[in-house]
Amino acid sequence: MKNIFQIYFLVILFLLNFHLLILGDVITTNKMEEEKSKIVSLMKQVYDTTNDLEIIYQLKDEMENFGDAGEYNDKLDEFRKLKTGLTLEVLKIIREKKDLNFDFDIKLYRNIAPEGPYPSGIAPEAIKEEDIRKKYKAAIAENKANIKKYNYERTLLEEEKDLTSYFRMFTAYIYARPPYRDEELKNYFQQYNIDEDLRRKIFKSIKEQRGEIHAP
């Protein structure tokens, strides 16, 4: 009778552990889906607001924090595919927002000097001549627009650089771990037109972390 109770107890214990394992897997999957949904929602917002830089800041932070604590280690294949794809989508958004023809050497001024005997930075209302005042106001507006555009393009450039650096680091780390999925990563590079130099650096780092080659 005692042996029957022991067997019964072990069966119950096994079923309980199995249930907790399944429950933990469901919780992990749900958490991953929640984070994915939040990131996708922010991506959509980028195109629905004039304050897109604030959304891009949030997107970059979300991507860098997504799975950073190692909570998805037991779902490595699913996690690295999802994070890699989402990060590349965010980089794509930033690149689409950039003006590739923008001239960073554009002239910007702290103060505009009007025509005539007036000092630089004078209030437009203090200028008596209407034609000079109109030209002065237009020059001030143009300079403000140029400064705003410059700051916008500079910020996008910096955000792209930072996220690309992070992408290079985490991709090399996560794809260096088994099971190896090199072809999957190559397909991502092809799909998102990643430049050859970045591809080489990432795969070099992957091979170093696997011990296939030695870092200099």
Q: Which features would summarize this protein structure in a list?
A:
single chain, 216 residues, mainly alpha, 6 helices
Task: Walk me through what this model shows.
By secondary structure, the chain is an all-alpha fold. The chain has helices spanning 2-46, 52-65, 76-97, 130-175, 182-191, 196-210. The chain is built from 6 helices and no strands. Helix 1 packs antiparallel against helix 2 and helix 4 runs parallel beside helix 6 (196-210). The radius of gyration is 28 Å and the shape is elongated. Residues 8-27 have low confidence and may be disordered.
Estimate the mean pLDDT confidence: 85
Portion of residues in beta strands equals: under 5%
Write down the secondary-structure element order.
HHHHHH
Rg calc? 28 Å
Summarize the biggest pleated sheet: none
3D shape: elongated
Number of strands: 0
Helix content: over 70%
Instruction: Please tally the helical runs, counting DSSP H or I stretches of 4 or more residues.
Output: 6
Unreliable spans are: 8-27
Note the topology.
Blueprint: H1 2-46, H2 52-65, H3 76-97, H4 130-175, H5 182-191, H6 196-210
Helix pairs in contact: 1-2, 1-3, 2-3, 2-4, 3-4, 4-6
